[in-house]
Design goal:
single chain; alpha+beta; six-stranded antiparallel beta sheet; 4 helices
């Protein structure tokens, strides 16, 4: 089961990522733009997710994903670390969120991280 240290290690392994405490919790940023947080005593993560995809995730896997009330108007989703299949799934979730926040120069410089559809 992935934990907060796994989140930190994987997030910081992504290009140009830094960690900064905000709202009394660790946040992870690419080129200064936030793409993940570790709220709830590091038992979950919040990541960027387009609203239409987010709603589908929550409906498909409510034991794993949910939308925090104060984030409902934003394109963010929460994931319970204990419900993730493995570290690979955590890596995929973090990399997807990183791609949504990363500037084009980083996406172009790191094709191994893939491009978003239409990107």
């Amino acid at each position: 089961m992935p934990d907060g240290e796994d989140v930190r290690r994987i997030a910081l392994s992504l290009p140009d990522t830094t960690e900064k405490v905000a709202w009394s919790m660790p946040t992870f940023r690419v080129a200064g733009k936030m793409f993940a947080t570790l709220p709830e005593d590091e038992t979950s993560i919040a990541v960027r997710c387009p609203k239409e995809e987010r709603d589908e995730l929550v409906l498909a896997e409510p034991e794993k994903f949910w939308i925090a009330g104060h984030e409902a108007q934003f394109a963010w989703v929460r994931a319970r670390l204990a419900a993730l299949d493995d570290e690979g799934e955590l890596r995929d979730i973090l990399a997807d969120s990183w791609r949504q926040a990363a500037p084009p120069r980083l996406l172009d410089a790191h094709p191994e991280l893939g491009r978003l559809p239409g990107g």
